[in-house]
Amino acid sequence: MAALGWLTPRRRSATARSVLAGEAAAEAARKTSLQLEREREEAAALEAARASGAEPEEPEFPVAGDVRAAAFFDLDNTVMQGAAIFHFGRGLYKRKFFQRRELARFAWAQIWFRLAGVEDPAHMQEARDSALSIVKGHRVSELMSIGEEIYDEYMADRIWPGTRALAQAHLDAGQKVWLVTAAPVETATIIARRLGLTGALGTVAESVDGVYTGRLVGELLHGPAKAEAVRALAAAEGLDLARCAAYSDSHNDIPMLSLVGHPYAINPDTKLRKHARDREWRLRDYRTGRKAAKIGIPAAAGLGAVAGGTAAAVALHRRRR
Q1: Which residues are catalytic?
Q2: Which of 38, 156, 181, 278 has a CA positioned 20 to 30 A from the CA of residue 251?
Q3: 3-state SS class at 111
Q4: What global pTM score does this model have?
Q5: Any residues with CB less than 8 A from the CB of 252 and at least 6 apart, and which?
């Protein structure tokens, strides 16, 4: 921590939490990737994921057999239309994990974030505390099982075919592909498994003996924490970040995108689009003429405002052992 001595105590604390969250996510991702690999070997190839009729728009650069290259994909509005935690939250609300008044409270923080494009610390703190209280005492296995059902109910039909084709191009080149998201690592792992990806980096919530304690390990895997997670995983996997690719829709992920040699802006918000153009990053936009897209609101904006609230209700919760 000596290298952080020049920072103020508040900034030093925030940086330390980002590092802790990133390292915890990387550790969880490596464990789950081994499990996903075994499952893929036993399961049928998932050609169905590519049978959407989309014309593959493959990156120009994946080098077949380059084991020191990998790809990192943000999830919300990059791989999936809308927020994964919103969809997961809808499923939890349907299963009566929380009441309507809690849904409304979570929604307000999400509405602020989506419309203003900034995170209010007070909103983030309230959303985090509320969401963690919802899952506290529940078993990790219970929410994993529910997550599988919710994927089929709300998420499977919301994968962007174009982004899916990009991910497949990396897989076809023999490269590993990771999701990197603020969504709970359990939810992210389910999505990675269903898409045939290597694994997932996500927010890690603490659990003891398979039961959530209501605390996070570090903080949400968001913004700088994502970059820390990618850096930690790359070091553990022996990757050369200059040969890696990263994909995101949000300016909040500029720290992650800036780490790699091949950054992509996918369905970018206004700030990321400008940043990408200034730096001549590649852009891809799979949306269809929505004005909402121009101001950075999720593709599922109508539901996304409320859903993201529930989304927050799950963004913060869990740790799997």
Answers
A1: 74, 76
A2: 156
A3: helix
A4: 0.71
A5: 222, 223
